[in-house]
Amino acid sequence: MTLSSYIHAAMSSAQYKILEDRTYFGEIHGFQGVWASEKNLEKCRHVLQEVLEEWIVLKLRDREPLPSAT
Fold it and tell me: What is the pLDDT, as a whole number, of residue 70?
């Protein structure tokens, strides 16, 4: 699996909800600490992917296993 397909698979399992303050919250189950909260859904998706990418870099740097993205 390529890095791009891993990110795409992880992002396809992201879950979003609207909070009481009308902001959007997104997270990916199984990817501890990967979440975003933004004013609109598109921005939330964008930031969530950035957080995921940075999280992957840290996992690889620390030689920690990555969870399944499916």
Answer: 73
